Amino acid sequence: MPLLTGLILYKVVFIANMALVPSFWTIYGLIATLFLISRLPYAYLHKDDHTAVYSASEYPNVSVVIACKNEEGGIFKTISTAMASEYQGIIECIVIDDGSTDGTLAEMHRARDTYGAEHVKVISFPKNLGKREAMAVGINEAKYEIVTFIDSDSFVAVDGIRHLAEHFMANPKVGAVAGNTKVENINATCSPRCSPSSTPSRSTSTRRARACTNQ
Fold first, then answer.
1. In the chain, % of residues over pLDDT 70
2. pLDDT tens digits, one per residue of 36-59
């Protein structure tokens, strides 16, 4: 309720400070306000109920895509937490080195040697092409319908991928699911790393379109 009250007050003040003569921005503000307010009851009444119990054979295989640059200190742990997931299906991890200048590629190879080339696939760009390009290459290399993206400085929860997959299993109309980010070293004086408690951190899972190669 405080959120709804604050939103209404903000919009009332916004519109009151505008000219009395109707304008594009006045109409836009009214429409946007009505739309936002209409979403709140819907979100409140929506039930995200995951009480269904699935057999191990029902869980779909998942492709995990991790794009990174200069993450020597944490990429091995990021890959390891994904591979250590408590998940009944198969997990393949596709890691893309986006032109790193440190030991990131060596750490990726260490992960591949640890978990096997059939589970960890390493792709290396000779120069930096950007995260978008790296993610696109990861999607093209993915073997499975469910593709999960994890930031290279984040660590997925042990049950995170299972929770993601169950959203797709519960409703075939679901096309994407986002995770919940929690700061792991909140008291650090430098850039914080992220880690979840029960859902994936900085991760998004998508269902690949069957009719095309790219999501």
1. 71
2. 888 778 777 776 666 788 999 999
Residue 28 pLDDT grade (very low, low, confident, very high; cuts 50, 70, 90)? confident
Instruction: Please give the DSSP secondary-structure letter assigned to residue 30.
Output: H
Amino acid at 64: V
SS3 content of the chain, % helix, strand, coil (to 5): 40, 15, 45
Pairwise CA distance, residues 119 & 63, whole Å: 10
- pTM for this structure? 0.70
* Residue in 78, 97, 71 with CA at minimum distance from that of residue 150: 78
Helix pair angle (104-115, 75-83), 10° resolution:
20
Whether residue 214 is predicted with pLDDT greater than 50 in this model: the reply is no
Residue 123 near residue 138 (C-beta atoms within 8 A): yes
Would the CA dihedral through 206, 208, 212, 214 be positive or negative? positive
118 touches 177 (CB < 8 A): no
What is the C-alpha to C-alpha distance for residues 167 and 170, in angstroms, rounded to an integer? 5
Q: Which pLDDT score, from 0 to 100, does residue 212 have?
A: 32
Scanning 23-157, the segments in alpha helix (DSSP H) are: 24-45, 75-83, 104-115, 131-141
Contact yes or no for 165/207 (Cβ under 8 A): no
What torsion, rounded to 10 degrees, do the Cα atoms 176, 169, 61, 212 define?
Answer: -50
Question: For residues 112 and 86, is the Cβ–Cβ distance under 8 A?
Answer: no
Phi, psi of 115 (to 5 degrees): -105, -10
